[in-house]
């Protein structure tokens, strides 16, 4: 039995905002991998550790962790073995407080989509092989670009072989003229840079997109049916209008990722979809693609979850930054990283992601100044990152 004293304890709920005891030091006691108590005094026979100025928060659930490529290829032309890249991905996640990193694997993009499906199978097979060596369980967020005419068959095969590891399935459509890329002029440099494509490859891909565009709505609906059949959480990505959100809701989507307008975000909330925005956006104060500002959406009350997107270090920093800017209370900000995303994907109230008695001891020690940072991370009571604190 271990008791940790923190300068402040955030439970991951917003119920404590007006309670005086939330501000003062508290003791969190861990026993048999679970939180046994959160109180002003520790049990008398526990091993007691004073974390001094650090705060204790619930550990983070990251629904869109899209950083594996930078571990696979940290520089152009450099390829790191996939098992090592997955180890580095998981180590980076826990170092920044994440104990549920939903690893993004994208398929259906580019002029030669077969390579993407082969890579997806390879990542999933390697993840299965090395899972026992990773510091935490790594579920997969499979991202499917439905502009690809092979997306239905490709997704079906991935789910058939690896469905147990795929915890989240989202559909996207990066065809220029709608969604994130309203013009071909915006689409070309973005896709060329991200996928390392020259003009000829972009032209070939664009021709394929136009040739098969009429089948995109049907492919989107079919993949939504796959998600329902596999009991997999289903998400829509980059909706640009209320109509796009209503269509996703009709397909039983429960998550709306990165809505492009405030109207789309509000429509998602109105239709019962959890709205996910990027923590880098919230931390920096704006979207790097000049899309909807996460802070504006949070102030409008239409954001449920913040996710790392491409930078896991932004999670804790975003929570502190939006609190200090008066955009949201610190309680609400922490909930966006912890209990809210866990609620979207959890199958049981016994795994609600909060720092409360009876829950798994998934928690982080956080330094809030001079720059917010995660100092240590625990998963089910086992320290998986940071210096030994006892």
Spans with pLDDT under 50 lasting ≥5 residues? 17-21
Mean pLDDT, rounded to whole units?
93
Strand segment tally? 17
State the domain count. Answer: 2
- Determine the structural class based on helices, strands and strand pairing: alpha/beta
Instruction: Write down the overall geometry.
Output: globular
Could you name the key traits of this structure?
8-stranded parallel beta sheet; 390 residues; 2 domains; Urease, subunit C, domain 1; alpha/beta
Task: Describe the secondary structure blueprint for this structure.
Elements: E1 2-6, E2 8-9, E3 26-31, E4 34-39, E5 47-50, E6 55-58, E7 60-65, H1 68-72, H2 82-95, E8 98-107, H3 113-130, E9 140-145, H4 151-162, E10 166-172, H5 184-195, H6 199-211, H7 216-229, E11 233-237, H8 242-250, E12 255-257, H9 262-270, E13 274-278, H10 279-284, H11 294-299, E14 305-307, H12 314-324, H13 330-337, H14 339-345, E15 363-367, E16 373-379, E17 382-385
Parallel strand pairs: 1-5, 2-6, 7-8, 8-9, 9-10, 10-11, 11-12, 12-13, 13-14
Antiparallel strand pairs: 1-3, 3-4, 6-15, 15-16, 16-17
GO molecular function, one term: hydrolase activity, acting on carbon-nitrogen (but not peptide) bonds
Domain Amidohydrolase-related: 213-381
Protein name: Alpha-D-ribose 1-methylphosphonate 5-triphosphate diphosphatase
């Amino acid at each position: 039995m271990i008791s940790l004293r923190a300068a402040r304890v955030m439970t991951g709920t917003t119920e404590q905002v007006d309670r005086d005891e939330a501000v003062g030091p508290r003791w969190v006691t861990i026993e048999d991998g679970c939180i046994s108590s959160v109180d002003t005094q520790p049990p008398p026979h526990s091993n007691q550790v004073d974390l001094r100025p650090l705060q204790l928060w619930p550990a983070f659930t990251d629904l869109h962790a899209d950083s594996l490529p930078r571990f696979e290829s940290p520089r152009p032309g450099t390829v790191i073995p996939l098992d090592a890249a997955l180890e580095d991905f998981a180590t980076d996640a826990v170092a920044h407080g994440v104990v549920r990193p939903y690893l993004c694997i994208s398929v259906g993009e580019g002029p030669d989509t077969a390579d993407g499906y082969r890579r997806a199978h390879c990542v999933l097979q390697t993840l299965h092989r090395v899972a026992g060596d990773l510091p935490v369980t790594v579920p997969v967020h499979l991202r499917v670009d439905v502009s690809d005419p092979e997306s239905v068959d490709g997704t079906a095969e991935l789910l058939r072989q690896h469905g147990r590891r795929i915890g989240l399935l989202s559909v996207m459509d990066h065809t220029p003229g709608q969604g994130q890329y309203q013009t071909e002029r915006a689409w070309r440099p973005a896709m060329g840079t991200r996928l390392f494509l020259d003009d000829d490859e972009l032209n070939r891909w664009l021709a394929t997109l136009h040739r098969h565009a009429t089948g995109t709505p049907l492919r989107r609906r079919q993949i939504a049916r796959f998600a329902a059949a596999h009991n997999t959480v289903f998400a829509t990505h980059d909706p640009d209008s209320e109509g796009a959100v209503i269509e996703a809701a009709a397909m039983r989507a429960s998550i709306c990722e990165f809505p492009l307008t405030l109207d789309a975000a509000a429509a998602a909330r109105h239709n019962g979809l959890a709205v996910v925005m990027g923590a880098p956006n919230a931390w920096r104060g704006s979207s790097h693609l000049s899309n909807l500002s996460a802070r504006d959406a949070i102030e409008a009350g239409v954001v449920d979850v913040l996710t790392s997107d491409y930078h896991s270090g932004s999670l804790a920093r975003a929570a502190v930054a939006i609190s200090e800017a008066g955009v949201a209370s610190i309680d609400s900000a922490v909930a966006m990283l912890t209990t809210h995303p866990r609620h979207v994907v959890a199958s049981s109230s016994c795994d609600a992601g909060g720092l409360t008695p009876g829950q798994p001891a998934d928690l982080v020690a956080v330094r809030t100044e001079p720059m917010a940072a995660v100092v240590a991370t625990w998963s089910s009571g086992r320290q998986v990152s940071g210096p030994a604190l006892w």
